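S.,

Sequence below, as promised.
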Amino acid sequence: MGITILGTGHHVPGVPVTNDQLSAVMETSDEWIYPRTGIKQRHFVAEGEGVSDLALKASQRALANAGVDAEEVDFIVFATMTPEFIFPGAGGLLGAKLGIPRVPALDIRQQCAAMPFGMQVANGLVATGAAKTILLVGADAHAGFMPWEDWDVLYGESDRPVSQEAMERGTRHRGLAVLFGDGAAAMVLREGGEDRGFLGADLHTDGRLFDRIYIASGGFRSRPYFTPEMYEREEHIPKMQGRDLFKVAVTELSRSVRTVCEKCAVTLDDVDWFIAHQANDRINGAVRQALKLPESKVPSNIAKYGNTSAATIGLLLDELRRGGEVKEGQLICFLALGSGLNWGSVLMRL
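The prediction came back faster than expected:
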């Protein structure tokens, strides 16, 4: 069989920011956010902190959990949509910080759907003999595209009034801004042997749907690639077609889960856990209902962390493993949809 997961780790920065704290910089409340998303709080990186810093702590915990030294890692797969730099990618920065600067690092860009794609890539690397021990990391730092600048007010460090203009800007983007938090998760992967490992994947990308969620500015169609006018038009903040995205997610994710189970000749009842990307509890609830799955098999931790994009699946898995709920030998289905649009599912026996 293919790869399996030897160890996991996660890290979230700073102190949690509650829904009610967001009301200091936009017109919102816990009563508005929680019923729509299932989110109660989230974490944000500090100024000057990047995804490789978050990933370093998550990776160190995953390596310790696996009982593997950093020097044993012979390939890094790093997923993020919020790197420190437009280039180079964050994978090489992580390798240097781990003390393994010459290990090859592959940066992948499937946004919130990155983990199923990363698992298939890692499985291929091991199957072809290109690597034996892979560090798969998902990390995102969304603070940089939040629609407010009054961080001191948000954190309660100042009681000065926020300008009406700033409050209106935050409120214009609240439907997206309330969803995201920052964090990192890591997995140590190796070949599983006869009874454990990667069973199969069902992955898709459809660029026709790119505008369901994307950032309009900062691309290389313009000269220069970012202008003051882009910032004035608030194009650095993601645009999202929420209702359409919801419909696509429910339809395609439920279809993908059925497909991967059919490919691998297992039933939905055979699967012990369905570990889904934590974008919105309403989406995951609708997918669960479409598949007629028991609520107990579709865990959630979005209330504590919000949508940490590429980190959500690894973060939830780490909590479940450390809590003793997810165990060796169990069959796991990982599923996610993200900007691109990218989506899919993976079956793996731990």
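The domain at 3-191 is CATH 3.40.47.10 (Peroxisomal Thiolase; Chain A, domain 1).

Coffee later?
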